[in-house]
Amino acid sequence: MAKTLYLMRHGQTLFNKLHRIQGWSDSPLTEQGIAGAKQVGAYFKSHDIHFDHAYCSTQERASDTLELVTDQSYERLKGIKEWGFGVFEGESEVLNPQPDPVRQTHGDFFLQYGGENDFQVQERVVKTLTAVMERPDHQQVLAVSHGGASFMFLRRWLSIDEIKRRQIRFDNCAVFKFSYDAGQFTFESVHNLDDPD
């Protein structure tokens, strides 16, 4: 029987607002980020969506978001933290490189600066979320993660062309719904804050 994973991006942070590269560094949620997380919590409640387990990354912006969405207990997981950008963290987003023409991501760029490449991020997030969904009594799970990590997770299951065709966005507080069965995730839908309920 298929299980369900809701993978959520954290609420807006100060660095998001200032267009700074965040990665493994952290910054607090803004008022907008707090309001957005509460809005997602209300969305889940109004649609009668409940979770038997909840998880978030080890970064404060993810745990703060989760605590605004639900008051249930949760576990923090290093495996779903954001892409590490090395010495670029805290710097302006204008310093981000152009996407690798083949991989359509930052590729290996950040490796030379103490960060991760796209495949490393993808491998750890897929491995971590697969292990979570294989746990007993995990039928409907919420996991709060990050934009880059969520993007690389989705890239494992959808091509970049399909992501563009569907116009999938990775906004703050976006909620990606996946079904899970026998080691495979299937993308079902995404809900953004400005989507009609």
Give a verbal description of the structure.
This protein has 197 residues and is of the alpha/beta class. The protein has one domain (3-191): Phosphoglycerate mutase-like (Rossmann fold, 3-Layer(aba) Sandwich), CATH 3.40.50.1240. Helices cover 32% and strands 18% of the residues. The protein contains six helices and six strands. Strands 3-2-4-1-5-6 form a six-stranded mixed sheet, with helices on both faces. This is Histidine phosphatase family protein. It holds the Pfam family His_Phos_1. GO terms for molecular function: phosphatase activity.
Bin the strand percentage: 15-25%
The strand count comes to 6
Q: How many structural domains?
A: 1
Give the distance, in angstroms, between the N- and C-terminal Cα atoms.
Answer: 28 Å
Radius of gyration, in angstroms, nearest whole number: 16 Å
What is the CATH topology assignment?
Rossmann fold
CATH-scheme architecture: 3-Layer(aba) Sandwich
Question: Could you state the order of secondary-structure elements as H and E?
Answer: EHHEHEHEHHEE
The number of helices is: 6
Approximately how much helix is present in the residues? 25-40%
| Quaternary organisation of the protein chains | single chain
Q: What is the CATH superfamily?
A: Phosphoglycerate mutase-like
Highest CATH level, the class: Alpha Beta
| Low-pLDDT segments | none
Shape: globular
Biggest sheet, strands in spatial order? 3-2-4-1-5-6
Largest sheet: 6 strands, mixed
Q: Please tell me the overall pLDDT.
A: 97
